DNA sequence: GAAATAGTGTCTCTAAGACAGTATATA
DNA sequence: TATATACTGTCTTAGAGACACTATTTC
């Protein structure tokens, strides 16, 4: 399950299935573990096969194992789901076995008029919740930002993943005062309008202590 | 991986292996998934086979999948580890295939002079960290307490799992003011010494918001 | 009475929420 | 100039840490 943020939206990579079952339906990309390969290695390999990306530069973590005996009509398949987070990723490369891969907003992939293959809707729901929770306790949000990035870029990541707006002032205070979250580059970025923003690289810290809790789910 | 708290110590159920490989060494209990069974069901079944306990009354959660191709010398075995938490559990029933099952303090099972079979030391480390983290964000600590229990009982659970002491006064304020953590029974417990303590049942809440963070790892 | 544990109250400090105000760019 | 975004500062409040103090039991 590969998440990115594009156009201020959390999006997920979906493929159109080219085989039965669920022919023509959307699904999360995936594949089978090979002999002599760990699950992490298999996830990295599938990731690079689907997107052409070097997964070692992305955030990748194991999510959960799904094991309902009837979840795959072909037979007994246990899936160990992985979650990958990356900055505004390119469209998937052609020529893979993933026919018609595309980015889809997570909100629309989870909406009632979309039905994913297998139990992938439930997996996607779990992945979304994991991503939202990770933003509270870790600095992975920076993994969504192409470097270098501004505090505003980072805030828009949080807003896209959590689905509500944050106070820019308080958000800035939190992330700039968290040791090791942001490393200033000394540069600034000029955009069409407004004051130029300071640019940062990802810092070395991986945990947010104290956490940045999503307590204010009110504003649009 | 079955955790309990006995004698103010976090303990884990270990078995003595009766077969090669790792014959005679200690290991976490486990087994193979059967056809037509989910992983959750398999975990519950193994739990009841090993301890005679009805797992539905315990807290049970999936931890992580372990997949190093060389982790089992007999061949390719992927393990999905589960974590079960329960109140001061009875000693495991005899007559199962678990030869010589016993409770062992987690600290000693993780000490340098103990070596568990397979990669079970790493699994145990992950399980301990998960349990410690769960105590911060959820009310599962109550799953370790035989009902009814006192605020002091609950505090000693935290102290056993986290490995350091908490301020009794601040701990009481936190758990009693968290809606749905404790449900007063109106009864009191008289012990050999000291003022009798009010007794509680587990409440309906499962999340601790805000969390009870282990920030003060200082006192003995 | 002492000793031990249960429980209350209070002071302080950190950090988050709300929000006013200033700074610096483009059109 | 207006507008938009970046950034600073300040007031208030929630909640945690430290810790003094009171309450109720057994010996």
Automatic annotation (TrEMBL), chains A, B:
<dbReference type="InterPro" id="IPR036390">
    <property type="entry name" value="WH_DNA-bd_sf"/>
</dbReference>
<keyword id="KW-0378">Hydrolase</keyword>
<dbReference type="InterPro" id="IPR036388">
    <property type="entry name" value="WH-like_DNA-bd_sf"/>
</dbReference>
<dbReference type="GO" id="GO:0035539">
    <property type="term" value="F:8-oxo-7,8-dihydrodeoxyguanosine triphosphate pyrophosphatase activity"/>
</dbReference>
<dbReference type="InterPro" id="IPR020084">
    <property type="entry name" value="NUDIX_hydrolase_CS"/>
</dbReference>
<dbReference type="InterPro" id="IPR015797">
    <property type="entry name" value="NUDIX_hydrolase-like_dom_sf"/>
</dbReference>
<protein>
    <submittedName>
        <fullName>8-oxo-dGTP diphosphatase</fullName>
        <ecNumber>3.6.1.55</ecNumber>
    </submittedName>
</protein>
<feature type="domain" description="Nudix hydrolase">
    <location>
        <begin position="1"/>
        <end position="126"/>
    </location>
</feature>
<dbReference type="InterPro" id="IPR020476">
    <property type="entry name" value="Nudix_hydrolase"/>
</dbReference>
<dbReference type="Pfam" id="PF00293">
    <property type="entry name" value="NUDIX"/>
</dbReference>
<dbReference type="InterPro" id="IPR000086">
    <property type="entry name" value="NUDIX_hydrolase_dom"/>
</dbReference>
<dbReference type="Pfam" id="PF21906">
    <property type="entry name" value="WHD_NrtR"/>
</dbReference>
<dbReference type="InterPro" id="IPR054105">
    <property type="entry name" value="WHD_NrtR"/>
</dbReference>
<comment type="similarity">
    <text>Belongs to the Nudix hydrolase family.</text>
</comment>
């Amino acid at each position: 399950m590969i998440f990115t943020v594009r156009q201020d939206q959390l999006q997920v990579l979906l493929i159109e299935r080219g085989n039965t079952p669920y022919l023509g339906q959307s699904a999360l990309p995936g594949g089978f573990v090979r002999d002599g390969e760990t699950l992490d290695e298999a996830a990295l390999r599938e990731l690079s096969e689907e997107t052409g990306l070097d997964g070692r530069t992305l955030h990748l973590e194991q999510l959960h194992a799904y094991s309902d005996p009837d979840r795959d009509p072909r037979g007994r398949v246990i899936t160990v789901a992985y979650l990958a987070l990356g900055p505004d990723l390119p469209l998937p490369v052609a020529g893979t076995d993933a026919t018609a891969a595309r980015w889809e907003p997570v909100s629309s992939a989870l909406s009632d008029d979309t039905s994913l293959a297998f139990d992938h809707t439930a997996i996607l729901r779990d992945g979304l919740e994991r991503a939202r929770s990770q933003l509270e306790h870790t600095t992975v949000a920076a993994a969504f930002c192409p470097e270098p990035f501004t505090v505003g870029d980072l805030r828009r990541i949080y807003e896209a993943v959590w689905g509500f707006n944050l106070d820019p002032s308080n958000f800035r205070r939190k992330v700039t005062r968290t040791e090791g979250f942001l490393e200033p580059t000394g540069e600034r970025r000029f955009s069409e309008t407004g004051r130029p923003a300071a640019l940062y690289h990802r810092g070395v810290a991986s945990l947010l202590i104290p956490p940045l809790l999503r307590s204010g789910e009110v504003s649009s």
